[in-house]
Amino acid sequence: MSLQLSIPDSILQAIRLPEQRIEQELLHELAVALYAQELLSFGKARELARMDKYEFGQLLAQRGVLRHYGSEELEDDLAYAHRQ
């Protein structure tokens, strides 16, 4: 399943960013908002933002959004640590 959002040209023109950065910045904003509202996990939100774990963690910190760290994230981190 894929979703396309239609944003009016007047809105796109009002965004004070270079045209080539608008899509990426909107994806960042959406990912942060959905994560902050606990509608997406950290992994899915960073996937939406097209960022790696470190970059997305930094973005959340810049925005003052606290990480949601539960048992699923702990299991992922432990599994990763055991592979190293």
TrEMBL record:
Pfam families: UPF0175 (PF03683). PANTHER family: UPF0175 PROTEIN SSL1255. Belongs to the UPF0175 family. This is Uncharacterized protein.
